[in-house]
Amino acid sequence: MVKRIFVFALVMLVLSIMLSACGGQGSSAISTTLNVEMSEFVFTPKDLAVPAGKEIALNLKNDGSIEHDFIILKKGVSAVLPFNAETQKDGIFFEARLNAGKSEMYTFTLPEAGDYEIICSVPGHLEAGMKARLSAR
Predict the structure, then answer these.
(1) Is the pLDDT of residue 1 over 90?
(2) Cα–Cα distance between 15 and 21 in angstroms, integer?
(3) Could you give phi then psi for residue 106, rounded to 5 degrees?
């Protein structure tokens, strides 16, 4: 009985050392995953939070019946109406566009802490309230 307890404790110790070695600071694993759904005319969820400086996985799904895009504006930039992605491209940090019914996974890294505005630039969508907020800490 004592031998079994000793072997069990030894196995648990070895497993614990192995697991702690896998999650070290040098790990390139994605630190956060965001699941965002787009539809007429809303992002769900509307408020998102991620760590700054870490790679973020974005699982984006268009549940709507028309095309939508997911644009993260640079820190401190607010969308000016009417928003035009071509003429206001200097204010865009990240952009993804999906047709109706499609899903896609993307990655990005926010360089610094702060608040970032998310919008849909399809004409009329931002005006209809299709925006969200992304906070990086």
Answers:
(1) no
(2) 10
(3) -130, 165
Return the higher-pLDDT residue of 120 and 22.
120
Q: How far is CA 106 from CA 8, 28, 70, 82, in A?
A: 42, 16, 11, 27
| Residue 44 confidence (pLDDT) | 97
Q: Which residue type, as a one-letter code, is found at position 28? A: S
CA-CA distance, 89 to 121, in Å (whole number)? 11
Q: How many CB atoms lie within 10 A of CB 115?
A: 10
Helix (DSSP H) and strand (DSSP E) numbers for the chain: 1, 9
pLDDT in tens, 35-74: 999 999 999 999 999 999 999 999 999 999 999 999 999 9
Q: Which residues share a beta bridge with 62? A: 38
Cα 91–130–124 angle (5° rounding)? 85
Q: Do the bridges between strand 32-39 and strand 55-62 make them parallel or antiparallel, or are there none, so unpaired? A: parallel
As a whole number of angstroms, the distance between CA 85 and CA 82 comes to 10
Q: Is the pLDDT score of 136 beyond 90?
A: yes
Angle at alpha carbon of residue 132, lines to 126 and 133, rounded to 5°: 135
